[in-house]
Amino acid sequence: MTNYGTALRERLEQDELLACPGVHDPLTAAVADSVGFDAIYMTGYGTSLSKTGYPDAGFITMPEMIENAGNIQERIDVPLIADSDNGYGNATNVVRTVREYIKAGVAAIHIEDQTFPKRCGHTKGRQVIPKAEAVGKIEAAADVRDERNPDFTLIARTDARGTGEGSLDEAISRVNAFLEAGADIAFVEGPTDEAELERLGREVDGPLVYNFVGDLGSSPYVELSSLEEWGFDLVLFPIAATLSTIANVYADFETFADDPVEAMRDIDDAFNDQPVGSLHEFSGFPEVVEWERQYLPEDEQEKYEGSLGDDPESG
Fold first, then answer.
1. Are the C-beta atoms of 228 and 18 separated by less than 8 Å?
2. Which residues fall in a compositionally biased region of kind Acidic residues (predicted)?
3. Fold (CATH) for 4-240
4. CA of 118: how far to CAs of 1, 3, 60, in Å?
5. Staple partner for 175: which of 28, 186, 281, 297, CB 3.0–4.6 Å?
6. 120 a catalytic residue
7. Where do the structural domains in the chain lie, given as residue ranges?
8. Stated pTM of the model
9. Which of 20, 111, 120, 128 is an active site residue?
10. Is 225 exposed, middle or buried (0-12, 13-18, 19+ CB in 10 A)?
11. What is the pLDDT of residues 243-264, one digit of tens each?
C-alpha cells in the first residue's frame, strides 16, 4: 500500500515549487490524475458546494469532508492534500479530526484558526480564535501526526490577515508560532500584493504555501517563478476544477437549452477529443471485468454472450 505521506514529503524536499490543482470530488480528481500532477488538492469550497449545495460557510461536516478526501485518494495515484477547515472544534476535536484524515490515507491536511462557523478565506466577515488557542490546536494535530503517521504533512493556516482588525504582522506571528508548535508548512491566507508575498518569504521561519484563488479573492495573480524566488514551496489552485465545471457545464447547457441533440453531439465530440478513452475506460470498467474473471465463478462470464451494449473492456 502506498504511503502517500512519504511520497509527498519526498516531493517537497525537491528544490522545485509544487503546484497542485484543486478538485472537489473523485471525478474531477480522476481527470487531474489522468493529466498528470505530482500531487492534487481537495478544496473545501468545492467540496461543500458539490456535496451539499451550500457555500463554504461552515455548512459541511467533518465526516462529509473526510469521506470525500478518502474517496478522492482512493481514486488517484498521487498524494492528496486536503482542506480540514478549522479542525471542526477545539483542540480535543482536532485530535479526532487528524486521526480520521490519517485513516483516510491522505498525505496532508491544512487546519486554520478561524472561529466556528468558518467561511471562505476570501470573503468578508472572517474571525479568528485567540492565538494561544490556535497554537494548542496545532500542537494537538502535530502530536497525532507523530503518533499515527510521522510522514503525514501538517499545514497550519492563519486567516488573521483578513479579519477586521487583522494585519500581516499578526499573521506572520501566528504561523511562526504554529511552526514552533509542530506544523510542517505555514499558510498565510489572503496576502494582498506582491510586497506582502515577498515579506512572507523573508519573515516566515519555514516552508510556505500560497493559495492561488484568482479573481475570487484579494490575493494577486503572480508568476510561479516569482513565488519560488520569494521562498514559497507549495501553491494550491483550490477552485480550478470547480470553476471549470461550472463554466463548461453552463456553456454546454446553454446550447442544450436551444438544441439538445446538437448540444449532445458537441459534448460527445469534446469528450472524444480528450485522451482518456471511452467513459467506461475512464471510469474503470476494465478493472471491474478483470475482478469478475479473477473472483467470480467461470459461468458468470456467460452474461456477456449475446448481450447488448458497449464492451466495458474496450469502450
1. no
2. 297-315
3. TIM Barrel (3.20.20)
4. 35, 31, 10
5. 186
6. yes
7. 4-240, 259-300
8. 0.95
9. 120
10. exposed
11. 999 999 999 999 999 999 999 9
